[in-house]
Specification:
36% of the residues lie in helices and 23% in strands. By secondary structure, the chain is an alpha+beta fold. The protein is globular and about 50 Å long.
Length: 231
C-alpha cells in the first residue's frame, strides 16, 4: 500500500475535489471523525469546511501557512477490501501518524480501476499547535508496512511510485512559474482520470494552480483552458 501526503492551505479545494467524486457516483464518504454527520448522510462541502475551520485558531495565530493535510492510501489493485476494512485502515493510519484526535473525513474513490481512499484533515490541534510532522514520510512508510501485514495486503513495490506523488505546490514568489506548473500538471495527468472540468479545477487548486475556460473570437472561434499560479 502506498501513502501519499500533501499539505496545503486550501481546505475548501481539498474537500471539493473529494466531494466531486461522490457527486459523480465515483466515490463515497466512508467515515468521519469530529465532523458533524448530516442526518440524511449527504455531506456538504461548505458545512464540512465550516466544521474544520471552527477547529482552527484565527489566521494570525496559525503556526503554519499550510494547515491542511490531504492523504491518499492506495492498496495494490489486486487487494479486494470491503468498505469497512478501508475505513478501519484509514482510521488506524491516522491514529498511528498522530492525527487520531483531529477532525477528518475518509473518502473512498472508485475512479481509476482500483479502490483507494483519500483523507482530509488538519495539521493544527485544538490548542493551536502544529501536529508533530518530523520524519513524517518515514513514519508513514513504517505504518503502511505494518498495515499491509495486519490486513494481509500485497506489499508496495519499491519507492519510485511513492515519490512520484510528492508534488510541490506552485509558489509564484519562487519564479519559473511555467516550469513549476508543468512539474505538477504532467504527473497529475498520468496519475488521475478527470471526469469534469470542475473536478480538475478542484484538484489543481490543491497545488495553488487556477484553471479557467477560455472562449473568444479572433477571426475564427477559439476555445481552450488556461492555467495560472495562484499567489
Amino acid at each position: 500500500m502506498i501513502a501519499k501526503i500533501n499539505t496545503g492551505s486550501n481546505l475548501y479545494g481539498a474537500l471539493a475535489y473529494n466531494q466531486e467524486k461522490v457527486d459523480e457516483g465515483l466515490g463515497k464518504v466512508l467515515a468521519s471523525n469530529l465532523v458533524c454527520e448530516p442526518k440524511d448522510g449527504q455531506f456538504s462541502v461548505s458545512d464540512c469546511a465550516m466544521d474544520f475551520a471552527n477547529w482552527l485558531p484565527s489566521p494570525e495565530h496559525l503556526p503554519t501557512k499550510k494547515p491542511v493535510v490531504h492523504i491518499s492510501l492506495n492498496p495494490h489493485p489486486d487487494d479486494k477490501l470491503a468498505d469497512n476494512q478501508l475505513a478501519d485502515i484509514g482510521r488506524e493510519y491516522m491514529e498511528r501518524l498522530g492525527y487520531g484526535s483531529q477532525p477528518y473525513l475518509i473518502f473512498k474513490h472508485e475512479d481509476i480501476g482500483r479502490d483507494h481512499i483519500h483523507i482530509v484533515s488538519l495539521r493544527v490541534d485544538c490548542e493551536g499547535k502544529l501536529i508533530k510532522d518530523s520524519f513524517e514520510h518515514k513514519r508513514s512508510k513504517e505504518i503502511t508496512e505494518l498495515l499491509e501485514k495486519k490486513y494481509g495486503l500485497i506489499p508496495a513495490q519499491g519507492q519510485k511510485q511513492s515519490e512520484l506523488w510528492q508534488l510541490t505546490p506552485v509558489d509564484p514568489a519562487q519564479g519559473n512559474l511555467k516550469k513549476q506548473i508543468s512539474a505538477v500538471i504532467k504527473p497529475l495527468a498520468a496519475m488521475y482520470k478527470f471526469q469534469t472540468l470542475g473536478e480538475y479545477r478542484a484538484l489543481l487548486s490543491l497545488y495553488n494552480i487556477g484553471l479557467e475556460e477560455v472562449k473568444g473570437e479572433v477571426r475564427e472561434n477559439i476555445s481552450g483552458i488556461g492555467v495560472f499560479g495562484i499567489g
